[in-house]
Automatic annotation (TrEMBL):
This is CoA transferase. The keyword Transferase applies. Keywords: Transferase. Signal peptide: none annotated. GO terms for molecular function: CoA-transferase activity. The keyword Transferase applies. It comes from marine sediment metagenome. InterPro entries: CoA-transferase_III_domain, CoA-Trfase_fam_III, CoA-Trfase_III_dom_1_sf. SUPFAM superfamilies: CoA-transferase family III (CaiB/BaiF).
């Protein structure tokens, strides 16, 4: 008899469109806690985190970035062109079957391709929408930098940690 350890997020599906560190780190932790994480990647190169060194050999004879491996354990990856009609249909079906959508893309990217917060909530009213943004995305809290991309080093500098 095999006793599987029950984890706090067993049975939760997280659909993630993420890049760099903030989103991948968050979903890595959710995956560690038992969530099924489906990471959507762009056709062609995939996540930009697949490129940095060190490049390591995988168990299938290929190579993989150590940087990518650091933040992307316990995830499934799916290549999906979100700008194509077929990609949008597949993404909509995944939204219907997910508990959480997490994104840390450029501000308003999902809205620009037809997936605003309101649209996503129409597709799945019970979904939890998580947006990791340096300067805000909610209309009530938009400041002068809200359309800018923010990485960790930018937030550190603007928050006074670098000085």
């Amino acid at each position: 008899m095999h006793n599987k350890t029950i984890k706090p997020l067993d049975g939760i599906r997280v659909l993630s469109i993420e890049t760099q560190v903030a989103g991948p780190y968050c979903t890595m932790m959710l995956g560690d806690a038992g969530a099924e994480v489906i990471k959507i990647e762009s056709p062609g190169r995939g996540d930009a985190a697949r490129e940095p060194e060190p490049i390591l050999k995988d168990d299938k004879g290929g190579t993989i970035s150590g940087y990518f491996m650091r933040w992307n354990r316990n995830k499934k990856s799916l290549t999906l062109n979100l700008k194509s009609e077929e990609g949008k249909i597949i993404f909509s079906e995944l939204l219907k079957k997910s508990d959480v959508i997490l994104e840390n893309l450029k501000p308003r990217f999902l809205t620009s391709i037809g997936f605003s917060y309101e649209t996503i909530k129409e597709i799945n009213p019970r979904i939890v929408y998580v947006s990791i943004s340096g300067f805000g995305v909610d209309k009530r809290y938009l400041g002068p930098f809200s359309k800018r991309t923010a990485y960790d080093i930018v937030i550190q500098a603007m928050g006074g940690l670098m000085g």
